[in-house]
Write a structure and sequence with these properties.
single chain; about 450 residues; alpha+beta; Beta Polymerase, domain 2; eight-stranded mixed beta sheet; 12 strands; about 10% strand; elongated; binds adenosine-5'-triphosphate; binds magnesium ion
């Protein structure tokens, strides 16, 4: 990156809205502890950005000129972590305050700068310490490079972040294409902040997004998995998804899903995935928990359905078709985005879909005690919106769940004799060719 002339705008305490009362007390105490020990200590990143936007920050990151070992010795509750970025975690019960040391800005023209890079310019590790100005220039977006200084409560702006925040702009610091090459995850971050904060991406920062998606193939699947969770569990999943598709980034994360979606363009607004993401956003808005397995089950549902259908057409029994399809879809996905831990739950959500068709006898009563029943039922409810057979089933289960034990037993009685009406009748219609009509099938 080109060397920038040092330029600093200081926004004194009376001219900005950040008060110590709006910062987590633990982060304030870390800042003061560093300050009293003679180090510089600032809040930086999302915490400062969100407070200036009047939003509640997710977490508070602290930066200092103390080196990781010095931080470690200063706090009894500190732990050093990270290889790519070596930093300290200071733990207060459930809350962790991340404390990093100021780092130097990366300079691709300087091979001796101590920054480890791949042949293509991607930064592999950068533990080169620097000044606060250098630390500002190596950050991703201008709005993420603002510092709240505990020494005088001022906000320090080295990169024009305040003006961009006021204009509602996401702008990469430095040359956009180069910064994306250094770390392609910045493309996903641009999209994430645009969707979550409702900001616009500055045109120069936006332009490369359309054609640099392929760089994501270099990123370890585990890192992309973390990023996917942040993209879709931040409360703006639907909008994030639409932007990712708009910039043709989604296909580099979930290639099989992208292929299915682009084939079914006319059904797009009705896909289960779109509905699932809307549902996840509503749950997050209501402070309800969202299981990452549910997200991944929805993200990979379209290719799973296609694979399963394909195998059924080849004459494979339904149960085997489903098992093989699950294995295939999972194997094809993991080189791109690793599945979150406990991805067994995702399998179970899928595997329970056919079991939900078994609505007579003791099975339904047993099934509701299954630890994954709720997730599988929620998934069925989503499927119901585009699939007639699933709609019938989901209505049945919804009624069933509202009843007491006796009512449930009555509902699960098999149909008896003529003339006695028993609901619901299982439809035995041949499967239609419509892509929205893949019925769940009974277990083998
Ligand atoms: P949030 O925590 O709300 O998701 P954030 O901006 O705090 O947003 P973090 O991932 O917590 O995001 O990162 C903290 C800060 O570290 C960022 O604000 C940014 O300054 C810097 N940063 C994070 N990732 C990168 C990156 N890939 N390249 C450059 N700087 C980064
Ligand atoms: Mg953060």
């Amino acid at each position: 990156m080109e060397a920038q002339p040092p330029s600093l705008t200081v926004i004194p305490r009376p001219q900005h809205a950040i008060s110590r009362a709006s910062i987590s007390p633990n982060a304030v105490s870390v800042l003061y502890h560093l300050h009293r020990a003679g180090y510089r200590a600032c809040l930086v990143g999302g915490g400062v950005r969100d407070l200036l936007l009047g939003r509640e920050p997710k977490d508070f990151d602290v930066v200092t000129d103390a080196k990781p070992e010095q931080i470690y010795h200063l706090f009894r509750n500190a732990r050093l972590i990270g290889r790519r970025f070596r930093l300290a975690h200071v733990r207060f019960g459930q809350e962790i305050v991340e404390v990093a040391t100021f780092r130097a800005c990366s300079d691709v023209d300087n091979e001796d700068d101590g920054i480890e890079r791949a042949a293509n310019g991607r930064i592999l590790s950068d533990n080169v310490y620097g000044t606060i100005e250098e630390d500002a220039w190596r950050r991703d977006f201008t709005i993420n490079a603002l510092y709240y200084d505990i020494a005088n409560f001022a906000v320090l702006d080295y990169v024009g972040g305040i003006a961009d925040l006021e204009a509602g702009l996401i702008r990469l610091i430095g040359d956009p294409a180069q910064r994306y090459h250094e770390d392609p995850v910045r493309m996903l971050r641009a999209v994430r902040f645009a969707a979550k904060l409702g900001l616009r991406i500055d045109p120069a920062t936006e332009a490369p997004l359309h054609h640099l998606g392929h760089l994501l193939a270099q990123i370890p699947p585990a890192r992309l998995s973390d990023e996917v969770l942040k993209l879709f569990m931040g409360g703006s999943a639907l909008q994030t998804f639409e932007l990712l598709r708009h910039y043709r980034l989604f296909g580099w994360l979930f290639p099989a899903t992208e292929r299915c979606l682009s084939r079914q363009q006319q059904h797009y607004p009705k896909t289960l995935l779109v509905r699932a993401l809307g549902d996840i956003d509503r749950r997050i808005a209501d402070n309800l928990p969202v299981n990452p397995a549910f997200l991944f089950a929805a993200l990979m549902w379209e290719p799973l359905r296609e694979q399963q259908h394909h195998r059924q057409e080849q004459g494979l029994p339904d149960h085997e078709a489903l098992q093989e399809a699950i294995d295939d879809v999972v194997q094809a996905q993991i080189p791109h985005v690793a599945l979150p831990r406990r991805c067994n739950t995702m399998r179970e959500i899928w595997e329970m879909q056919p079991r939900l068709t078994q609505i007579t006898g003791k099975r339904p009563l047993r099934l509701i005690t299954h630890p994954r029943f709720r997730a599988a039922y929620d998934f069925l409810v989503l499927r119901a919106e585009t699939d007639e057979a699933a709609a019938e089933l989901s209505e049945w289960w919804t009624r069933f769940l509202r009843l007491d034990e006796a009512g449930r037993v009555a509902m699960t009685q098999p149909p008896k004799g003529k003339g006695k009406k028993s609901k619901p009748r299982r439809r035995r219609k041949p499967r239609s060719a419509s892509p929205d009509d893949v019925r769940p099938t009974p277990d083998a």
